[in-house]
Amino acid sequence: NYIIINVYFPCAGTADRQLICDDLLAEIDSLWQQFEMYETIIAGDFNTSLDSSDVVAQAINNFLTKRKLVRADGLFLTAKAPTYVNEALKRSSTTDYVVTTAPDSLLDFTIVDDIINFSDHRPIMASSTVVNLMAIRLKI
Question: Closest by alpha carbon to 3, among 41, 43, 45?
Answer without folding.
Answer: 41
